[in-house]
Each structure stands twice: as C-alpha cells, then as structure tokens.
Specification:
By secondary structure, this protein is of the alpha/beta class. It is built from 16 helices and 25 strands. Helix 4 crosses helix 5. The longest helix is centred in the first third of the chain and has 17 residues. The structure holds S-adenosylmethionine. The site of S-adenosylmethionine has 19 residues, from strand 20.
Amino acid sequence: MTDSPRAANLLAQLEHLNEQQLRRLLVEHLTKQKLGLYWEANAIERDAALNADVVLPRLVEEWSHSPSPQPSPTSVRGSRLPSPAGGRGAGGEGEQFTHRNLIIEGDNYDSLRLLRATHAGKIRVIYIDPPYNTGNKDWVYNDHYVGANDRWRHSQWLEFLYRRLTLARDLLTPEGVILVSINDENRARLELLMDEVFPGMRVGSLVWRTKDSTSRTESNLSEVHEHILVYGREGFSFLGSSKSTKKYKNPDNDPRGLWNIDPLTVNADRFERSGFFYPLQNPKTGLWYPCDPDRVWAYASELRIKNIDRIRSGSMEHWIREGKIIFPKLDEERVVTWQSIEELREAIRKGDVPVTPKRKKPLLTEDTPDLGFWVGKPVGFGRPGFKKHWNELNSHVNPVCSWISRANEQHDEDDLHVLISPNAGAGTEAIQEILGSRTFAYPKPPGLIQELLRQATQPNDIVLDFFAGSGTTGQAVLELNAEDASTGSAQVGQRRFILCSSTEANSKEPDKNLCRDVCAERMRRVIQGYGGKAGYTVEQGGEFAYLQLDKVEAADAHFEIDAAHAFQLLALKRLGVIRAASAGAVQRLGRVEDCELLVCNEVTPDTIETLAAWPQRHGAARLAIYSTRPKTLSEQLAARGVEANCYSLMDALLSGQRGSAA
Ligand SMILES: C[S@@+](CC[C@H](N)C(=O)[O-])C[C@H]1O[C@@H](n2cnc3c(N)ncnc32)[C@H](O)[C@@H]1O
C-alpha cells in the first residue's frame, strides 16, 4: 500500500486519528460499499492531467481547413445540399470563414471540459475507441506506458476513463448515445464502469468480428472479435430499418389487408397448460387436428375452460369466428380415418401420422392421452395457423441485430437489421491509402463507424470522438453526409464532427504531434480527395477548425483571457461554430433569429455610436452584447433609446467551467 505517493499520503493522514476514529472509519468503509466496480482510486498515482483551470480555445488558422482555394466543381462529389448556416460571409462583409467541424488538440480531459462549457446537451452521438489497456505499450498514464505487470494497471485505466466519461455524460442530448469499442479482455471491467457512469442507460452491446484468420494462442482460443458497448439516454433508439411486406400477401382479398401465417402454437407443454391441449376441429370441413404435446395451441377452447372470458387472449372459437385461424385447404392435405385402434397403432409404429412441420415429430404416439378418440374420425395431416395481419404488427421497424456481419457473411434474418462492417485490416488499409504509410497502429475501419452512425444519427447531429487518434470518425461523418446526398434521402446530411486527439508527444519524441500530422492531415486529404476518390464541398462538411487549448487559473482569468479567446469561446458556446476574431472593439458573433450577438471589448463613445446604429444597419430587432462593463454599456445604450441585453463577458466565459475541479 505504501508503494505510491498517494498511498503514503493517506497513511500519513490516518496517523492523526485515534482508535475510536479509526474504528468508525473502518465500520463506514465496511458498510458503505455497494455492489459494483471497485478500483483503487485513492491508492494510485494521481492523473497529472486533472486540473481545474479555465480552458480556452485558440484557433490555429494555418492548421485549419477552409475552402481556399475552392475545389473545382469537377473534383468534388456532386451535391444538392443547401449551404450550411455559416460559411464565408455569413456574418457580413469582411468576416472570416465560419467553421462547423472541430479538431481539438490536447489531453481530452481538457477538451472535454471545454466542450462541457460549450456543448452541454448538444451531442447526439459519442463514439470512442479508447486505449484498450492491453499491457502492450498501448497506453500512457502520466507520461509512462502502463505495462502488463504494473500493480495499478487496471485501476489507473479505470480512473483515467472514469474522469473522462463523467465529463462526456453531460454532453449528450436527451436522445444521445455513447458507443465504446473495447476488446474482449477488458469488456467486463469497462461495462461495470459504464454502468457506474451511465446508470440505467445500458442499451446493450454489439459484437464485431475483426478478422478472418486465426492465430494460435497459449489457451488456443483465437480472439477474432471486439465489442461495442452502447449506452443511450432515455430518448435514444437505433433507426433500424423498415420491415419488408415481402412475406405478407392477400390472396383471399381479406378487407383487413396483407397477412402472413404465424404458428398457432406457443412454447408451453401440455402439463404446463393443460387447458390448451386438445384435438382441434375445423368447423367447416369437420377434419380433426392433433395438438403438439410440447407446444400447445395458443388459444384455449370454450369447451374445455369454464371462465373463458377471463382469458385475455380470447378463445380458439372466437378466433375461428373472426376468420383468423387458417386451416389447410381440403384439396391440399392428406386426410386419413383409422377404423380401429389397431389400425391407428400400426400407423404410429410406421410413423404414418401427422407430424410437426419442421422437425417432423409425430403428433400421435402410444402416449397420447385418450388415443381411442382418434379412431373413426377424419384426421388432417396439415397444420392450422394464425392469420397475422400487417396492420396488427407491434412495429414496422426491424431492430438492429447485436451481431455485426461482414459483407461476405451469409445472413437471412428478415426480422432484424444486420449491421455490416469490413474487418479491422480495412482501417490500416485506409490510412495507408490516404497518408501513404501505416503511420498509425490499429485505426478502426471507416466503414464500421459509418455503419454505426448510419443507425444512430439524424442528418443534423453532432458526432464527437474524444479518442479520435487518426480521425477515422471524421472521415465516417463526411462519407455519411455524402451518402445521404447520393441516395436522395429526404433530409440531406449536415452531420458535424468534433475530434479530440492528443499530440502523443513524450520525453523521447517531444515534437510529435499526432493530432496535427495524422488526424488533421488525414481529414485534409479526405476533404481534398485522395486515390481517385472525390473530395467534399464545404456544404458536405469539407472543412474544420484546428483548435489548441490555453489554460489559465480561474483566479487569473480576468488578466489572461484575451479578446480572441473570448470571441471564440462565445462563438462555440452560443452558435456551435468558430472563426477567427476580427479587429475592432465591436465584434459580431452571429445572429439568433432577430437578435444580433456581439462582443464589445471597450466601452467608449465610438463603440456606443457603433452599437447604437447597429440594429438599423443590420436589420435586427434586438442586441445581445457581451462586455467587460455590461452595466455601463446597458445604461448608455438605454440613454440612446437602444434595447440591448448586456451580459458580463467574464461570467459567460467562466460558466460551465466553474466547479470542474478534479
Ligand atoms: C485506439 S486509439 C483510437 C483510434 C481511432 N479510433 C482511429 O481509428 O484512429 C486511441 C487513441 O487515444 C489517444 N489518447 C490516449 N490518451 C488520450 C488522452 N488523454 N487524450 C486524447 N487522446 C488520447 C491515443 O493517442 C490514441 O491515438
């Protein structure tokens, strides 16, 4: 316990307690533990990334991607998308390009704190593929790789993820969902952690087959799958797909419309539901049908159950009257009448009796109760069924299947929507093709994420990946937007991406910048078009802002936050967009309905003059102004007869970031 500074610190604190206090602490410890996951959060080395600083975005224009020069019309995918709200010139003459997609460089603990201040409740889908804690140098904690034999390996990983997932939780919309990739070994640990952070939100998990080839292992169990855990807020559901009416017909012109034949039996045996086990007669033809003793009829007979009205499902006779029971056609089935019990026994011996449709199990045997009943009666060899009408189905949507298939896999489930993905190797191939080398290990295939997003997003949603690595999620978002346009979908794709990626700089490679050189570079090439593939127009999301993060202690915020920080943080917060701040004491953030959003850094006669003329010049009914001196500004504008809501700039910048102490 003393081999970590944190543990030593705890020990030092306990030394001051007397015996009674120690006993109380022990009782508390023993009685307060709850069912669930336990990890040694207090004993491990503290995550150096945790901090309570104010996080401020800084736009790095030269690493961002704006449409300059505009791609030629022939080099981009054909588009019939409307212009997004933004783009060049949205704010009027002289304004900078407005970005809607973000790449955020840095530790995602900081990125998530920024997003909690700007995007709380606005993200529809979070997809993450965190380091898997394999022990094979796949993950850095406090600047060192966490190896397989690290005493605190699992606790560090859980604490690391716990801190970040807790921040991410606040970002989801009421219909939002988080999808997390994980390997088989760490799935159980992660799932318990997810239960802790997202209580009551578990939707389920998907299984993705990652490779075709097998490899010999010590246990000789070759791992060829990964999991994707799905946790959604109350309003979330996968889109599924429309059920096909293929199997539904109406050969008898039934006024109730299309129908299909459902089994007339249920999964209960004759001992469990004795009242449902009886010979069934077709009242029109007089033919008799034996009941399957292992799967009795779905409806009881009025002749056998006294208080049939109490049975909510209705009696067999009721459904026959309703025309819902389909008996085999007389001319299409075999009918036999056994004249004596010996003749029937002989037929049973030979197996020449009615059988179940699939497994061909005889329905009359020596054990059939009251076997003599079947002598002298015409017995039908077909099976009656239930007429299920299309308009009675609970849902016309097929649910998503938890098994992710590959395109070459056979699947004939008509009532399930099967997701399809390439295998893991396709991720590396994509990187190789786009960047010309395998510069990033184990990226996910774009097709996998695209398929998940196809099911989990609507065309205007924001998608966040805060372990973005090489940026696969960004590519998947753009591909999906373009797909919407090409398939003529009713709503055109305007999904946006937010990718958070670390630099991966360390003491050996201090200049490494994975975010800039792999993630942003990949997105730039995808947007421009690569390997003969067309690029993306701005309308299709072919742009991004590259943000670095500056951090200041809350106490110093008044001195250290500059005009550009203020402008960009507010643009993100109020409009979800970012652009370079322009010069001048009055800056226009944008417009919400008839209200102009402005930042005013200095209150001078000149700025008052500019602001007083603003509503008329820009055709706005109202002004909302963020200022360092909101009271003075409000009074001076009121004196000029201008209606303006003036807010404290500092309060707006700090809101959402207060109380984020680690
Ligand atoms: C398994 S990879 C994700 C790969 C990604 N899905 C792709 O297809 O490229 C995990 C990524 O998380 C990044 N990472 C680890 N710790 C991080 C942190 N604290 N902040 C941001 N990124 C981090 C690693 O640099 C690595 O690129």
